[in-house]
């Protein structure tokens, strides 16, 4: 590998989260019965006309502003002609020469701790195709056209990436930006963001580009890394055994961890592009752009910085907690309604220990932010100990209760801080452990912990540990 350098460019397809399709009024909701959400426009029947959904311009412009790009004042749609079973109308409406967004960039953190700028060539609007279904149709293929006409923003990077790790870092950051801007739901499993990885290798030190292959439709960050690493190794093996890399489109099979050829690469010529005759060029003026700019939400790096200053978090913790829009909103609620540092600990350890940051969606979290805040407040006001709090958290997580306070009451979990309740227990423990008492008094003061532990056990963890510590010490030292 030392002799070779990998060169990678990504094309990312993000489904824009509009309620209706890009050129028709049909719903884009996921999961409907096959072919119930495809209109004559989506199917390209003769005589019907597309009408562009204005929301896609706003979302594309928001993305352009988020990556510091040029927003082109004129935006034109083109027809890309090809036939495929999931595209029965024979062409896709996309943008070739006059995309809505050009010349952006995204800075990423590298493994060596440095920062690196990845240039974004363009981002253009287009419609999605349908989906071929193989699973339930032994020996045949089903076609579901519900997805046909779903708006996509295709985000094309320059070949600036040099490893699978850099590529996935960049893709994660694009994903984060899309969800912060609230222009894509980011649900990778449902295909809301898919990556095509263009990969080539060249001798280290060379500045020429090698021949690339394109691996299509990768819908997880892990597969993206695996597919790229696999393709780099395959190309090195091909060249080192005297062969040549062929420019082609490949498919990644995650089950076998291999890429295999799908078709030889087509060129723009093959698609017979021409301007879409049914849609006029659209002029995007400065007032539209500045209106979108005024509505932009807080960006990921702004939120991270604010979490550091407002809640006193380290950069690393702030980065983790702002890593996904839903997570950031959840954390911010808890931190604002309770002790922020405790909130940071609980969210990072207890929640992110159970759900990965990437798939965190507060709607699926069984512990509402308001209950986690109550739980932390019950620790702060010494109603319960931190240890008992974990059992309450578990109960919330398992769905045994939906109220921290009700659960503490019902199970009698209130911390015992009253020394008149605790003192007799301490006395009894001391009386029953004469050997340890002798050792303690002979100088083995470490045994303090043993006595405290016994009292905690006796009280089912409910005693206030600080109070117990004081009482044990007093009783042991004063006799
Ligand atoms: P196409 O539309 O045919 O896929 P583009 O020129 O738009 O071709 O390039 C698509 C992607 O391929 C871009 O992300 C670009 O950075 C990347 N790319 C181009 N040449 C190379 C190369 N030699 N090695 C790796 N990636 C490349
Ligand atoms: Mg391509």
Explain the overall architecture.
It is built from 15 helices and 16 strands. It has 479 residues and is an alpha+beta fold. It folds into 3 domains: 4-288, no CATH class; 298-411, no CATH class; 419-478, Orthogonal Bundle (Arc Repressor Mutant, subunit A), CATH 1.10.10.410. The strands form 4 sheets. It has a 9-stranded mixed β-sheet. Strands 5-4-15 form a 3-stranded antiparallel β-sheet, with no helix packed on it. Strand 13 (248-253) and strand 14 (258-264) form a beta hairpin. Helix 12 (419-432) packs across helix 15. Bound molecules: adenosine-5'-diphosphate and magnesium ion. The site of adenosine-5'-diphosphate has 16 residues, from strand 1, strand 10 and strand 11.
Give a brief outline of the structure.
38% of the residues lie in helices and 19% in strands. A 9-stranded mixed beta sheet has the order 2-6-7-10-1-11-12-13-14. Strands 5-4-15 form a 3-stranded antiparallel beta sheet, with no helix packed on it.
Could you give the topology of this structure?
Elements: E1 4-15, H1 55-66, E2 70-71, E3 74-75, E4 78-81, E5 91-94, E6 101-109, E7 115-127, E8 131-133, E9 142-144, E10 151-157, H2 164-180, E11 193-203, E12 213-218, H3 221-240, E13 248-253, E14 258-264, E15 274-275, E16 282-283, H4 286-295, H5 300-311, H6 315-321, H7 325-337, H8 340-351, H9 369-380, H10 386-398, H11 404-410, H12 419-432, H13 434-441, H14 448-458, H15 465-478
Parallel strand pairs: 12-13
Antiparallel strand pairs: 1-10, 1-11, 2-6, 3-16, 4-5, 4-15, 6-7, 7-10, 8-9, 11-12, 13-14
This protein binds adenosine-5'-diphosphate and magnesium ion.
């Amino acid at each position: 590998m030392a002799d070779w350098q990998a060169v990678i460019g990504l094309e990312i397809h993000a489904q824009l989260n509009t309620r209706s399709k890009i050129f028709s009024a049909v719903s884009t909701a996921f999961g409907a019965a096959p072919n119930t959400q495809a209109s004559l426009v989506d199917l390209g029947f003769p005589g019907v006309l597309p009408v562009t959904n204005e929301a896609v311009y706003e979302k594309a412009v928001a993305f352009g502003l988020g990556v510091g790009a040029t927003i082109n004042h004129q935006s034109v749609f083109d027809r890309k002609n090809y036939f495929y079973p999931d595209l029965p109308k024979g062409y896709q409406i996309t943008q070739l020469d006059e995309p809505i967004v050009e010349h952006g960039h995204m800075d990423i953190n590298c493994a060596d701790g440095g920062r690196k700028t990845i240039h974004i060539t363009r981002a253009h609007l287009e419609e999605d195709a349908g989906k071929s279904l193989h699973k339930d149709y032994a020996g045949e293929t089903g076609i579901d056209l519900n997805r046909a006409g779903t708006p996509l923003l295709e985000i094309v990077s320059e070949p600036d990436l040099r490893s699978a790790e850099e590529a996935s870092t960049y893709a994660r950051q694009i994903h984060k930006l899309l969800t912060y801007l609230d222009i894509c739901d980011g649900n990778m499993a449902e295909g809301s963001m898919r990556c095509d990885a263009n990969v080539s290798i060249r001798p280290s030190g060379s500045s020429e580009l090698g021949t690339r292959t394109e691996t299509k439709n990768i819908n997880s960050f892990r597969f993206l890394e695996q597919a790229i690493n696999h393709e780099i190794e395959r190309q090195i093996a091909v060249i080192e055994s005297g062969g040549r890399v062929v420019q082609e489109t490949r498919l990644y099979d995650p089950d076998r961890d291999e890429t295999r050829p799908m078709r030889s690469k087509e060129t723009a010529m093959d698609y017979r592009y021409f301007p879409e005759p049914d849609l006029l060029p659209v002029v995007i003026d400065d007032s539209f752009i500045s209106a979108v700019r005024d509505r932009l939400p807080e960006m990921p790096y702004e939120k991270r910085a604010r979490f550091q200053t407002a809640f006193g978090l380290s950069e690393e913790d702030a980065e983790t907690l702002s890593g996904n829009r839903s997570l950031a909103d959840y954390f911010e609620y808890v931190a604002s309604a309770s002790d922020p540092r405790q909130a940071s600990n609980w969210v990072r350890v207890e929640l992110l220990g159970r759900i990965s940051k990437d798939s965190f969606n507060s709607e699926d979290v069984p512990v509402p932010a308001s209950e986690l805040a109550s739980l932390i407040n019950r620790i702060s006001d010494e109603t319960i100990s931190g240890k008992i709090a974990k059992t309450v958290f578990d109960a919330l997580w398992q769905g045994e209760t939906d109220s921290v306070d009700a659960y503490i009451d019902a199970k009698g979990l209130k911390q015992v801080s009253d020394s008149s309740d605790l003192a007799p227990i301490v006395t009894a423990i001391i009386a029953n452990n004469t050997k340890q008492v002798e050792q303690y008094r002979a100088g083995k003061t470490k045994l303090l912990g043993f006595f405290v532990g016994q009292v905690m056990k006796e009280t089912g963890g409910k005693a206030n540990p600080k109070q117990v510590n004081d009482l044990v010490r007093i009783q042991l030292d004063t006799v």
